[in-house]
């Protein structure tokens, strides 16, 4: 069974299409539990969700969110943190109660306990209904770098030099070398997954993830086995998906 693939015209179209999927989910179930990502990719989706909230009254008052990851060893106020990113780019513009927002605490003293607590919080919320995902240039999802065990739960991950470089290009100097991240198993437990990618730089990794073997060297390849996967890419990122009359 192939996942649903949507090829958007451009980044704005991708962001709109992704926002419509998220909005549909929230309208169908106002107590939706969303899994959220950071990075460049979901910024347009977040802008569009803010617009839907402000102009069309999309209600987030009962929505709960769980972010994929957070850097280790920095405080939530730190501008490099994903707490800061999420607050600035999404949460402060919505009517979502603070208590409904969850991110791993990268400053926790007892990391193992924090990872257990995060898994437990997701379970208590009833699990993730819809997980938004980007893909790293090395195929990572969350901060699950190549080689991560398929059975991993929330854990402390060491970032590869490639990931640190990519994220420094986006978020400035001094990105920590470790992060707390949902594991592959945590991600795969979500009911539905919305994988987003745009631009030519993601074309080859998206093709390897979706058409290549399911292999730990490309963590996102496990998504081929998820029954509720929806992929939205722009034309550039879809470059290697089309061929022989098939989508992939
Ligand atoms: O969207 P970008 O900036 O290319 O990042 C890709 C992925 O890498 C991360 O930033 C690392 O976790 C993810 O949050 C994101 O989905």
Automatic annotation (TrEMBL):
Reactions this protein catalyses: alpha-D-glucosamine 6-phosphate + H2O = beta-D-fructose 6-phosphate + NH4(+)
The protein's role, per its UniProt record: Catalyzes the reversible isomerization-deamination of glucosamine 6-phosphate (GlcN6P) to form fructose 6-phosphate (Fru6P) and ammonium ion.
Organism per entry: Thermanaeromonas toyohensis ToBE
E.C. number(s) listed in UniProt: 3.5.99.6
Pathway(s) the chain acts in: Amino-sugar metabolism; N-acetylneuraminate degradation; D-fructose 6-phosphate from N-acetylneuraminate: step 5/5
GO biological process: carbohydrate metabolic process; glucosamine catabolic process; N-acetylglucosamine catabolic process; N-acetylneuraminate catabolic process
Alphabetical UniProt keywords: Carbohydrate metabolism, Hydrolase
Keyword Nuclease: no
Lineage: Bacteria, Bacillati, Bacillota, Clostridia, Neomoorellales
Gene Ontology cellular component list: cytoplasm
Keyword Hydrolase in annotation: yes
GO MF entries: glucosamine-6-phosphate deaminase activity; identical protein binding
Residue numbers annotated as active site: 69, 138, 140, 145
Annotated protein name in UniProt: Glucosamine-6-phosphate deaminase
Source organism, top-level taxon: Bacteria
Gene designation: nagB
InterPro entries linked to this entry: Glc/Gal-6P_isomerase, Glucosamine6P_isomerase, Glucosamine6P_isomerase_CS, NagB/RpiA_transferase-like
Family statement: Belongs to the glucosamine/galactosamine-6-phosphate isomerase family. NagB subfamily.
Gene3D superfamilies registered for this protein in UniProt: 3.40.50.1360
Domain Glucosamine/galactosamine-6-phosphate isomerase: residue ranges: 12-224
